[in-house]
Amino acid sequence: MYFLAPEFLWLLLIVPSLLLLYLWLMRREKKLAQHCANLAAVRQAMAAGRTWRRHLPPALFLAAIGLALLAASRPLASIKLLTSSATIMLAMDVSLSMRATDIKPNRLVASQEAAKAFLEELPRDIKVGIVTFAGTAQLVQAPTFSRESLVAAIDRFQMQRGTAVGSAVVVSLATLFPEEGIDLGEMTFGNATRGKSLDDKAKPGKKEVTPVAPGSYESAAIILLTDGRRTTGIDTEEASKMAADRGVRVYAVGLGTVDGAVPAYDSWTAVYMKLDEPSLRAVAEKTLGEYFYAGDAEALKKVYAKLSSRIQAEKKETELSALLALMAAGLSIAAAALSLQWFGRIV
Asked: Angle at which helices 14-34 and 39-50 pack, to 10 degrees?
């Protein structure tokens, strides 16, 4: 916790001063009562001085003053809040290496089942979109609240050659920020693809992006799952920079074996079935996301369970002045009400 107006903290010294004043008044009242001629009145005054009811309203009022003065210093605290109206992009690897059976029944089926379990855990007010990638990346399900549509899209996965990890991140960003005109084809091949057909519509100009703090965009996140390393498409480092500049966190999930010791069909496949953990860690670190390794189907489900809870909760710097002021008002009202109830006046 820190304070936007810490100079007002000095005013808190008023509270112990008022407490000392109250104790002095109580002692003075006790001495005056001892000079009274009526012994019964003296005993009544002494008994009144010992009852907790007499001291509770002033104690509540002093607490109210303390909270009000603390509110004046404008304290801020980092608290976790449940997020809503968020969009999660699932970018899932469907390259041929996903047919490896080191994760039963194979990597693709295990990732599909884990993704479905993840969808069941997410609140219904969070949109989810799905991007698949192999040699290219494509949006197979636009962000939607419909879990049934998402499950159907997951069941339609088809494996292909290649692993375009960076392209998957770019397609996810293009889906999250359609107004920016992010063009994967142009980023991959340049302007050579423009104007080939009279039916092609003029594409909107690319919007200039002002970089923001990494991880500061709270309305979306990307979950990237792969079992290999980039073999084609947009450079992964360039894609991660694009995500970081837009404040979008990328949570990377590495699947399968790190050393690539699985049955392979040729030497080229054996090399690129190795999980590129350093690259995935770099993506997560650059975007202030997180990297997870899943060596088997059960571990993969646990990873998705963790992601579900972490994505739903976000930390925000929240000013507590209004809350403290409300608490101070409530204590003041309670002190006055109890005083009137017990003594017929505000003491």
From this structure: 160
Residues 58 and 90 in one domain: no
DSSP-derived letter for residue 95 is B
3-state secondary structure of 81: strand
Residue 209 phi/psi, 5-degree rounding, is -110, 125
d(CA 92, CA 304): 13
In this structure, are 267 and 334 located in the same domain? no
Structure tokens at 49: 């001085």
Provide the domain count of the chain: 2
- 56, with CB counted inside 10 A (0-12, 13-18, 19+), is middle
The two structure tokens encoding residue 94? 């469907």
pTM for the model: 0.66
Q: Are 125 and 83 in contact (CB under 8 A)?
A: no
Nearest Cα to Cα of residue 283 among 231, 243, 314, 329: 243
Contact 261, 270 (CB under 8 A): no
**pLDDT under 70 in the chain at which residues?**
1-2, 29-52, 78-85, 189-206, 259-273, 311-317, 347
Contact 292, 255 (CB under 8 A): no
Long-range contacts of 117-122 (CB under 8 A, 24+ apart): 117/301, 117/304, 117/305, 118/90, 118/304, 118/305, 118/307, 118/308, 119/147, 119/150, 119/151, 120/147, 121/304, 121/305, 121/308, 121/309, 122/88, 122/308, 122/311, 122/312
